[in-house]
Description:
Elements (H helix, E strand, L loop, with lengths): L2 E4 L3 E4 L4 E5 L13 H9 L7 E7 L7 E7 L5 E6 L57
Antiparallel strand pairs: 1-2, 3-4, 4-5, 5-6
Amino acid sequence: xxxxxxxxxxxxxxxxxxxxxxxxxxxxxxxxxxxxxxxxxxxxxxxxxxxxxxxxxxxxxxxxxxxxxxxxxxxxxxxxxxxxxxxxxxxxxxxxxxxxxxxxxxxxxxxxxxxxxxxxxxxxxxxxxxxxxxxxxxxx
Length: 140
C-alpha cells in the first residue's frame, strides 16, 4: 500500500486519496471550434507512460485538496508532490517545462492566497539513502 504525503495533512494511507488522471492536460483554447474527433482526443486520449508519470490526486477523506504527483508507474515510487498549477519537476526535483495546464494560478484549487508549502514532501531531492523503516502508523 502507498503512503502518500499530502501537502496539507502530511503522510497518509493511499485509501484516503483518489486518482484524478494525467496532470497538465491543457484545456482547448477554442472549445467551440473543435470537431467530435478533437473533443474525443481531449476528453479520453491520455499518455500511457511506463516510468515517470505526472498525475493528479485529491485527498478525498482529508483536506479535499487537489495536488500533482510525479510517480514511477513501474515501481510505484513517488518522486515528487507539487501543487496544482506549478510546473512539473523532473525526476531529480528540478522544474521543467510542461506541455500545458488548465490553470496557471499558484493556488487554483484552494481557498486563500497562497499555495501550501511542500518543501519537505519530495523524496526525489533527498541525497541520503532511502529509509527502510516505515513511519509510525504506516502499513505496507
